[in-house]
Amino acid sequence: MQVVEDVGELRDAVLSRRADVVGLVPTMGALHEGHLSLVERARRECGFVVASIFVNPTQFGAGEDYDQYPRPLEADRAACRDAGVDLVFEPTAELLYPADFKTYVEVEGLSGVLEGIHRPTHFRGVTTVVAKLLNLVQPDKAFFGRKDYQQLMLIRRMVRDLDMPVEIVGCPTVREEDGLAMSSRNAYLSKEERTTALALSRELHTVRDLLVSGAHDVSTERRLFAERLAATPGVELDYATICDPESLEELDRPQSRMVALVAARVGSTRLIDNVLVELDAPN
Ligand code: PAF
User: Fold this and answer.
1) How confident is the model at residue 280 (pLDDT cuts 50, 70, 90)?
2) Ligand 1 first shell, C-beta below 6 A
3) What are the structural domain ranges in the chain?
4) 3-state secondary structure of 27
5) Prediction pTM value
């Protein structure tokens, strides 16, 4: 496995494997099984797998956890090696954002709802860095988890709107046995907070079961879903809602595909999670 920091070296390495399908798994490190499932999928579909590890400063707002974000670089490299990554790209912030950096990519509309309300500059940072990584690696396919559902939708829209020649592959959320969605930020949770955090996946699955079993007043289900979470001790709710899976507009009536999404703070840790609700699909 090659580890490169330099853009020239990255380009040469990818060029030498251009005959293969090239896959990119962008990450901010602190790798867990969710990330490794993306690498596994990339391995199945690509002949050359690049993983990037970069804690992207532009997607953190003022007062968020950029400095605190875990950076276990040696363990991450070992995990990539064991998972069969061919090349790890570890750029520095100075390389991706020189002092006179002035160009950002923004997906209007979609970036201003849900997470965008609570983290107003977040998605501009995400789409900018993902555009840069796609330009640097020029992969045939790039792999993202559905855990960051709104992020995945924004990246798909950016790729479509800007005619980027890459296939975006969305991969299922990986959960702990008790339902907690895997996230690098779970490492911040105390034992007690981790137990409290289970309310998020529990309520998401409850609302999915209600919708699948025929609840037709989606606006009421939406309200009750949010009320149940807001009333959970230790959970400080940002939003809990049911949306159209493409436009992310809130729904009042059921439709064949919906997504229930939640964001909340447990202690000082902000967590997000979602489940897709497919009325025609077997659950
Ligand atoms: O999902 C993440 O870890 C990040 O938002 C991403 C896509 C690697 C961009 O920094």
Assistant:
1) confident
2) 26-28, 56, 59, 126, 129-130, 148, 151
3) 2-171, 184-274
4) strand
5) 0.97
